[in-house]
Design brief:
There is one protein chain. The termini are far apart. A hairpin with a 2-residue loop joins strand 5 and strand 6. The protein has one domain. Helix 1 runs antiparallel to helix 2. It is of the alpha+beta class and 101 residues long. The chain is extended, with a radius of gyration of 18 Å. It has two helices and six strands; from the N terminus they run ββββββαα. 20% of the residues lie in helices and 17% in strands.
């Protein structure tokens, strides 16, 4: 009889887990106050509190282009130019659950 292989366990220190990011705006979510809430007021692990509250999007009719423009408005806070924010947003947003086609 053949023995099953041992489970693979990597050696050495492992990188920290990647933070969850909002599947609408891409904001990293690490602490409880970052997360949105479901209709039953439980924590939603897919969307941040800026985008999703009480089981609904805070701006349900927002288009992806409007989200890009909203993110451009926060460029200074992110210490980036509006052009850099636009380029990053156009690369990231189409990969997020809310905007996937």
């Amino acid at each position: 009889m053949v023995e099953p292989p041992e489970p693979f366990e990597p050696e050495g220190p492992q990188p920290p887990p990647l933070p969850l990011i909002c599947q609408s705006c891409g904001m990293p979510m690490g602490k409880g106050s970052d997360f949105g809430t479901n209709a039953d007021n439980s924590r939603n692990r897919e969307y941040c509190g800026h985008c999703f509250m009480k089981g609904k999007f805070t701006n349900p009719n927002m288009t992806m282009e409007q989200m890009v423009e909203h993110m451009e408005g926060m460029a200074a806070r992110m210490k980036m130019s509006k052009g850099q924010v636009r380029k990053a947003a156009l690369k990231l947003l189409p990969k997020l659950k809310r905007w996937k086609r």
